[in-house]
C-alpha cells in the first residue's frame, strides 16, 4: 500500500467512526415517537405525516429496524414507531403513504427479528389491502385506456415510485407476491404504450400536469425524467421484477423503449451528458436536435443523472446488456465530475441530498468494483457528515426554498440520512430491505 493510499484509508476509517457517532446521536433524538411528533412544530408540523415513509413514523421505524438487525435492543423502538403509525385511520396509498408505507416498515422490522416471522398477522392483513390497491390502480388504468383509444395523458400517481404502481409493485416483489407484482408490471407495460398527444404520438407516461410549481412552462403536461416520478422509476421496477423472475408480455420491449428514450433525451455540455427535469410533450424529440432541453436537473436520487444512471444499470444487469450498464456508469461518473456547486444539493437527505448520492454511489461502487468510485463514496459521506447539526431537533436540517426545517423521516429527513451513514460506517450492505423503497436494489 502506498503512503497516499494509507492516508486515505486512515481518513476513511476516521470518517466511518464519525458516521457511527452521528447515527447514534440521531437514533437518540428519534427514539421516542411522542417526542418526535412534538418536535415537529411550525414548518415541520406542516410537513409531518404520521403514516408516511417520507415524514412519519414508518420512515423512522426503518432506521430502528436496520439498527435492530445489529443490536436487538432497538427492536422495541422500531415497534413503538410502528404502533404509533398504526393508530387511527389507515388509508390506502402508494409505497410512501398509508397502508403500503406501514406494511413496508413492518416488513423491514420483521427482517430484523431472528426468526423473521414477526408481524405475520399484521402483514397478512396489510398485504390484502396493498394487493387490492394495486388491482384498483391497474384496473382503472386498463379500463381508461380500453375505453378511449386516444386516452390522453395520465397522472404520475398511477405509475411512479412514490405514489403509484412502480412503488407498490416493488413492495409486492419484496413480499414475494409474484402474481400481484405481475399485475403491476402488466399495467406499467400498458402505461408505456404510446398515446395521442396534441401534436402526435407521445409516450404513455405523459402526465397531464406540470412536474412542480412551474405550470406555465408545461401547459400540455410533461414527460418526467426523474427516478421518483418518471420513466426511470418504471424502468427500475421492471428491471427488478425481471431479475426476480416476474416477467410479463412486452416487458423486455418496454424496458428497451424506455432506455432508448432516456438516452435520446440526454443533452450534453462541456462536462458531458445530463438530463433535465422533464420534457414537454410538444418537445419530445431527441435533446440533441430539439434545442429545448434547458439546464441539468439537480444531481440526486429523485431527479438528475444519478437516479437515471442506477435505473439504466439495473436494466442492463437484468437483461444482460453491457451497453446499458456502461451508459449508466458513464452518466454517474460524469455527474460526479461536475463542480459540486452545480449539483443543486443543499442538505443531507436521501431524496435530493448527500445521503441519496452516497447510497447510489455506494451501490455502484459495489457492483462496479473497477470503476474507482471509492473516493467518491468517502467524499459524499464527508459531505453528509458536514451537514450534521447537534443543535437541531433530529441532528440534520433540510433545505426548503422558504428556509431550513428539521424533518425526522426517511425520504427527506434525518432517519434516511442516518440509514445511509450507518451503511457507510459499517462498510457493508443493509441487513433489512430499506433500499428497496428507493428502487435502487
Mean pLDDT metric = 92
The general outline is globular
The largest pleated sheet is described as: 2 strands, antiparallel
**Count of helical stretches:** 17
Low-pLDDT stretches: 288-293
Order of helices and strands: HHHHHHHHHEEEHHEEEHHHHHEEH
Characteristics:
441 residues; mainly alpha; two-stranded antiparallel ribbon; two-stranded antiparallel sheet; 8 strands
Folded structure, characterized:
The protein is mostly helical. It contains 17 helices and eight strands. The strands form four sheets. It has a two-stranded antiparallel ribbon with strand order 1-2. β7 and β8 form a beta hairpin. The longest helix has 28 residues. The protein is globular and about 55 Å long. It starts with a helix and ends in a 15-residue tail after the last helix.
Brief overview, please?
The protein is mainly alpha-helical and 441 residues long. Helices cover 53% and strands 5% of the residues. The strands form four sheets. A two-stranded antiparallel ribbon has the order 1-2. A two-stranded antiparallel sheet has the order 3-6.
